[in-house]
Amino acid sequence: MPTPHLQADIAVIGGGSGGVAAALAAARCRVKTVLIEQDTLLGGTSTTAGVNCWEPVCGATGIPRRLFDRLTHLPGACGIYTSTRHCFFMRDILANYPGGEQRIVPFLRYQDTLKADWDYSLAWWPGRWNGVVFEPLAWHHAATALLAETGCCHVITGQAVVATERANNRTLGAVTLANGARITARIWIDNAGILARDAGCETLTGQDPYDRFHEPDAPITPSGQVNGATRIFRITPIRDPAVQSLPKDIPTECWWSPSFPKMVGTQYPNGDFNCNMLPTITGQDLATMTMPAALAETERRILAFWHHVQTNWPEFQHYAIKMLFPKLGIRESFRVVCRYMLTENDLLAGLAGQTHDDLIATADHTMDRHGGGQATRQVTAPYGIPYRCLLPVDIDNLILAGRIAGFSSLAASSCRLTRTIMQLGQAAGFAAAIACHNHTLPADISVRHLQQLVNQENKT
Question: What CATH architecture applies to the domain 5-77+135-207+332-459?
């Protein structure tokens, strides 16, 4: 049989949160789009890795809001939570928890998760620390439905990109999938890092030294340390309280750290809890392992941790582990050198101190390394992310739409939140559509036109 061939105007590689947002934005502009995801579920880290929570953040309107609204039409698909207990920020009985607890509150609205009028002098704000929790399969179904309704997006799941072709020295031409299908496109959007890596784009990994970006919290010498990763597990209520038995080959003590880590437990609509131990494995440990070995080791750590939690907090004896999510929640890999690199200096300056005329998204999360070797630092106001952070230096018809974009390591530790990445994907999709309509390259589009589309979408 002849090798199947699909020709599109825009091809999005990676169906994570940023990729889905990019494909949806492009397809809603009536541009022929294809979205390719190697897993069977869309959502990436948000679904297969179990990061089923959207933390509170500014600026998350537009496509994130569209997806949330669609989720609300599916029974038991999502809820809005608030922080109810926390061992660091509360006292007495509210501090008696192995980390932080988040429970669904029915009267909270999506707007309550957007940090409007936020007091940035507070590290944590009781009653205002609100976010979204969702069922992963519902996320996939909602995203799939939104993409299908455009009539302009062809979704391919369960197929990995195995080869990348250049059209010339500075443009991509085609990719080949594991099933032999060949995809061609005019503009490419990379949410997974596959295209940037295969095309030989310059990348950065680990902590950037001070002399690279002159960031106040950067180390003097570079380091290969990256943000820690998490293996998330799900617990469910049981009728007869019990401590789950621990396999004999797993110690009851924490062997990978001086003490057991903390966890964030977030309630699902059905009463289960999403349990995120922070981190399950450091970036340094992960770098020394194969992925099968890392999954086996993180399973052992989860079982030891769960035994510790059930033993020391008897309320958890009313729950049992229901599942471990099949993939790790990886917060940091490599970053592509782009036409502008967002740095800690941008984050500390905030919108009032930035002079960029191409901002396409805002963010405000703490610079949080999760065991990555640098201290946490609060931002004092929302900051903007320039469009140039999505444009790699080395390839002209490629736009980035994920945590691989043009960020320093410190900046990436802040703007990596899911809904921020969706905002970047939204901008990437609109930019690609403009480039296709105007028969130009992404770097040559009207940034004002792009900002108009982004602002219009964010108001809906």
Answer: 3-Layer(bba) Sandwich (3.50)
